[in-house]
Specification:
Length: about 230
């Protein structure tokens, strides 16, 4: 049973702990995203990053060959995709808030759907062309870079900073950080993943700072408004 869940021949226990822990931290993040969608009608994940994410999860979760890390990791990928279907619903329904360009607003849903299809096809081409590792590490950091770069912009632009979750900020950053630690250990010569992963960790730390800062500013404004 253990051999079915985890590939201990190709990966050390430490590597598997780092990777699996990081993956399932993202499941927690996705669950909070869904809560925000239904409770606040708010999509925290940057919408164009969400379009990339769902494309990656579809290809690497369901198109063979799958990851060789074991069933626990493969079903982590698949669980991401299944939960992300709900998040993508939230993107289509409430993600217009993130767009300020009128022409994009007018055709918002077709643009987002087309973008997700593009990313799925691009990731499939990337995978079948042999440019990736068996676990999808190289392409995953394309998706990760989109999230990490777009998050600070969305935090600064949003008129509802109090809806950005501090739990999401920490779990997202820690989850990605643990996976990046795994990459350094298991792929010591994959400098591309190391550079992009490290950059994403730094950007995620910036996002944490910005969320706390913007929430604090919003609280000050709210207190002053009540006092007035």
């Amino acid at each position: 049973m253990l051999a079915y869940l985890f590939n201990l021949d190709a990966y050390t226990p430490l590597e598997l702990i780092l990777f699996v822990s990081g993956c399932y931290m993202w499941v927690v993040v996705y669950a909070i995203y869904i809560r925000q969608i239904f409770k606040y009608k708010f999509t925290e994940m940057p919408i164009f990053a969400a379009a990339s994410n769902i494309g990656w999860e579809l290809i690497y979760g369901y198109v063979p060959p799958g990851t060789d890390m074991g069933a626990a990791c493969l079903w982590g990928y698949r669980l991401w995709f299944l939960i992300d279907l709900v998040i993508f619903y939230g993107v289509l329904k409430y993600g217009l808030e993130q767009v300020s360009t009128p022409k994009i607003q007018k055709h918002f849903k077709p643009i987002i759907i087309t973008t997700s299809v593009f990313w799925a096809v691009a990731y499939l081409a990337f995978k079948t062309s042999g440019h990736d590792t068996i676990i999808g590490a190289n392409s995953a950091y394309i998706a990760q870079a989109l999230i990490s770069f777009l998050y600070p912009i969305w935090i600064l632009r949003s008129d509802r900073p109090m809806l950005f979750s501090r739990v999401v900020a920490w779990f997202r950053s820690l989850g990605s950080g643990l996976i990046t630690c795994f990459m350094f250990i298991h792929y010591p010569e994959n400098y591309y993943v190391q550079v992009v992963g490290t950059t994403c960790v730094l950007l995620d730390m910036l996002s944490i700072y910005l969320i706390y800062q913007r929430r604090s500013e919003a609280q000050v404004v709210a207190v002053k408004a009540e006092a007035a």
